[in-house]
Amino acid sequence: MNNLLSISLFLPELVLTATIIIAIIVDIFSVSNRTSKVSNYVIIGLLATLAAVFLTNHSPTTLFMDSLAFDPFASFIKSVVLVATLLIIIFTRYSNEFKGYHTGEYYALLCIMVFGMFLMASAIDLITVYLSIEVVSLMSFILAGYLKNNPRSNEASLKYVIYGAFSSGIMLYGLSIIFGLTGTTKFFAIRDAITTLDSSSNLALTLSTVFVLAGFGYKISAVPFHFWTPDVYEGSPTPITAYLSVAPKAAGFALMIRFFNQVFVDGDSLSTLGWYADVSFAWPEILGVISVVTMTMGNLVAIQQNSVKRMLAYSSIAHAGYMLMAFPTISSEGVFAVMIYLVMYLFMNLGAFFVLIYVAQKQGGENFEHFSGLGWRMPIVGIVMTIFMFSLTGLPPTVGFIGKFYLFVAVINAGSAFYWIAFFGAINTVVSLYFYMRVVKTMYLDGNPSEEIIVPPLSVTLILLVLAVPSVFFGIYWTPILNWVNNSLLFFVQI
Amino acid sequence: MTGDMLINYALGILFFPLISFIILIFVGKRLPRQGDVVGIGTIILTLILSLAMFGSMLLSHDPGFRHEASFTWIDLGDFEIRLGFLIDNITIIMLLVVSLISTMTHIFSTKYMEGDIRYSRYYAYLGLFTFSMNGIVLANNLVSLYIFWELVGVSSYLLIGHWFEKDSAADASKKAFLTNRVGDIGFFIGLMLVFTALGTFNYAEVFEGVAKGAISGTLLTFAGIGLFMGAVGKSSQFPLHIWLPDAMEGPTPVSALMHAATMVAAGVYLSVRLFPLFTPEALLFIAYTGGFTAIFAATIAITQNDIKKVLAYSTISQLGYMILAVGTGAYVAGFFHLVTHAMFKACLFYGSGSVIHAMHHALHNLKDHDTDPQDMRNMGGFKSKMPITYWTMLVATLAISGVPLFSGFLSKDAILAGTLSFASHHPQHFLLPVFGFSAALITAFYMFRLIFMTFHNQPKLPNVYSDIHESPKPMVFPLILLSSLSVFIFYTLPYFNPLSDHGWFMELIKAKDSMVPGSPSAHDIAEGMHHSHTLTMILSILVASLGILLSWAVYIKNSVSADNWSKRLDLYYNLSLNKYYFDENYNKYLYQPFLRLANRVSYIDWDLYDKYFINGFGHITKWLSSVTGRIDYDGLDQTIVDGLGRSMGKAGSSLKEIQTGRLQNYMLFALFGVIIIIIFQSF
Amino acid sequence: MYRDFGTVLIFAMLAIVLVYVPLFIQSLVAPSQKTPDKLDNYECGEEPEGSAWVQFNIRFYVIALIFLIFDVEVVFLFPWAMVFKEMGMVAFIEMGIFLLILIVGLAYVWKKGDLDWVKYNVKYGRGRYRQKASQTEGEAVGSI
User: Fold this and answer.
1) Cis, bond preceding A397 (omega within 30 deg of 0)
2) Do B58 and B130 fall into the same domain?
3) Could you tell me if B128 and B159 lie in one domain?
4) How far apart (Å, rounded) are the C-alpha atoms in residues A99 and A95?
5) Are B210 and B101 in a shared domain?
6) Segment A261-296, tens digit of pLDDT
7) C108 and A27: CB-CB below 8 Å?
8) Could you tell me if B378 and B308 lie in one domain?
9) Which residues of B touch A158 (CB under 8 A)?
10) Global pTM?
11) For the segment B19-56, what is each residue's pLDDT rounded down to a tens digit?
């Protein structure tokens, strides 16, 4: 589709852009200590964007001279990202970490990041891929270092910048080799070109793909490209940590799914096993090993943490590993499972982080000892946190169980060649039980149960319920999500 | 009203009480009047919706009306479970009964429970109960039925144990829950048998499968009996009847709502709903269970002195009647009795509540905490002090005794006609009508015994008597309403014949044919009942008047001395008074051996298995781990890991001046990762 | 394919050769008389003052960044001007939006005080920066 025609289907992004500009203008003209006013406009703008995402209906097509795809899959990821962003804005308004900071730009930056993730969700051109990743990364750097007076935040930001530059450098190298091999930047043209390559270019192809994988791995924090994660997650303001662990990860997975499906696999069927480009590639094995190593590393290190925030950081690495489990199968069932898991993960992970924000404010810290006896002192918070911990472990009847269930089904249905991945996945689930249950144990068995009971204010209770109710409800009745994902499992495909 | 409209109404009926429950359980205490207005408000909304549905049913007057709506709950490819609503005339009538009695209970409780420490929680639980009961009624499949079935059990547990400080109440709630579990196991087995055979839980699809013969013979009989076991537990049939009398430890309005009118009727409702899948053998089992329970509970009721215990055993006996009706194929009569019984039995319970309330206050004023306010031997002569309670209870008693002009006569008559016609086709089962008629005789006797002992004769405790007052308006109103609903006219309209059960009810609820091949058709059963109608009517009037007369002779005229007779029938009297020693025998022959077995098992588990096997295994593991630990620590850690670490540290420190220490390592690792992948890939 | 990269290799080698061969030749041929002036850094004819390795004020960075944005704007304006006649109104509106966005950026920078050399309306950090700020505030403009 040409540029002018594309604009009507680019409506969500346009609404988002307008939101960004309005946020900046409002920020300019607002009194500096009442900057949370900006968030009102941003929330309205994001809701409008969400509406635009749902209202823009069209059969799958491409926009702007084949550089972006417009399909239900992209809309799905966009909605997930938007919901996460809205929740994070509410978290930020509640969090007291930003006291004394000017938060006007914060919301504008968040929106720009959303814009980047929108592009990531729909990129089908190497240049768009790189640009969108960079937009998201740059905004993440600033947001991670938003607490200027906090040395840890500064450190996190700097580490993130350098590591990010390093990874995108590697990735850019990989992309340029692909361009050199095929002479084009469009996914579909690349796929066609790759099929015609002879075996002499295998090494170059391997190199390029591994390099690209490094870029993706950095975005979804898969081992061995995850090193930035714990430091950045710990140093950043907690709402940003929560955000980084959900939204960019969702966008990263979307990009990865699209890239591997459309460049290396016959994109039309999505159900064929085996990789399209070169059968001698051991991709399933490599991705399987990365997945297993990622979840094992995340879980094992998480066990040793004393800070709940750091524990959650490592646990988010482990969850990336779980989601990667479905990649080697590269079946529609696997993609389906990843999409379901993303939705489920959104609720439980953000919920756990919100409880952390609240507890850190009430108890003055984020370590395990600050949680001791919490279940008796703040009964509502205790119950809700228990739900999230159960869910992150993957116990029924919570959303975590449903998400894991579909992942394991996808892996096992893909055949006996992948049983070992499922095996390690199961072992890891058991390992993760230890540190998630440690939180529950600390809340209910440690410390002295006090007589005084703290009931959180209504607004906090509401947020907790908004996150906890779906965590249980969709664990019991998940058909709506299933239907939504089923309808969204449709890529743009060039014949 | 269109079907979709009805579904919306049903959604409201189902969820309003749940909303009330959620509000009350979380913020009930902070609301004005502890939030009872929320409970009452939602239940009245529910009642209005039920009345609207009922009205539309009467207007459309369609016996075959049926509307279904469902949604997919679990979809795992081949395995799919759908949940939903089924609305037909039975559903609509049940919904009205549940919301009506529930509304009455809510109103009655405002005074009865006044000043209770867990007042708001009480109303919350009432909301939960109404929600789950409506859920049972609306279910169109066995799964949601089972879910709500258990929820009803939970709310019953919570409400029986409302005063859990009393040991007897706590024990009673446990007993009720556990006894129900026994029945529910059977229910669950039946459920699974049906599902494995037919692959569906939906009623209509199950019946279709049965009609096609996809499940038949002994398996179907077992499935039917299994499902019926659920009804045995919930409707307190022999031999699982033991929990209901104890459940009277709960507040009296709760007894009226759950343990007389609605929850215990759930078992009957289940049998009515599933009637088409019962085989003749299963039905025979059901009939004998019901018939035996009817006579058995009635004989216990004669000797009880606690006013609520008498009513409890009478409830068991009446439920037995309904089950008997299902068993003999006259299940419409059984359902009819369910509805009429709900009205007059709830009225009787409210009446007893009113009496107990008055007694309690009188005793409280006298600072007498030893006298039992529920013992009928302490009452007498209340007629003049509590006229409204007396007259309303009298109406309800006449109804339950089966006196013409009252609702009980119509429904009981229909049941007895069903048993007579069944026996006339199968003379070997002559016991069933014998059970039925003798239970009717005893019922009339003990119910009038209750009335006479409480309201007539001379007061036994004069100082208490002088302090008895009529109950306040919110308690009297339900009594008047429900006793007027015990008059025949409400069930026979548009006809005015007090001796025949023809009316809107029988016209709107038509018996369905059994789906089991070879069963008698509904038409045949109705024909048989019609034939035996006149004989039944004469017999039942005779039996009822005999019972009342006998009671009058014993307790008013004293021409026959009750004490004298009880001494003469010493053995029987003691058996009945002690409820046939059921609790004691269950304890001795079931509970104690089970406890011993559990001890034995626990011994094996702890002292043998754990000590030798698990711990032994632990020792081996410990030893192994110390060996591997040494290898790991000395061999690997010291040389390779630490060595590597040291060399890394050296590399890191030498590069520190141009880069920020650790980040360098990070990138190095990432680069190693890339290289390893490439090497791996190249082979 | 590798042949294409071979061309690149030859180019690279040629480039290296063509740089070093003339240098090598002139080192053989040219006379060499070293004086202190000749060995000094070339700074546009000015006499060098101290080392070039000094800390520059961070505000240069901000200024450079802002400059870059508006510089890039002009880069986009040239091609736009070329096709303006053909596209007409659409192009005009589009460029209007583009400029509007940039103007918002300018307004933002202005409001935040980044166009002033010394930002009076921002709080200074803690420690030595606060002191320095109060010292320089008086003599503000002009000093580097």
Assistant:
1) yes
2) yes
3) no
4) 8
5) no
6) 777 765 444 444 444 444 456 677 888 888 998 888
7) yes
8) yes
9) 660
10) 0.69
11) 999 888 888 777 777 778 888 999 999 999 999 988 88
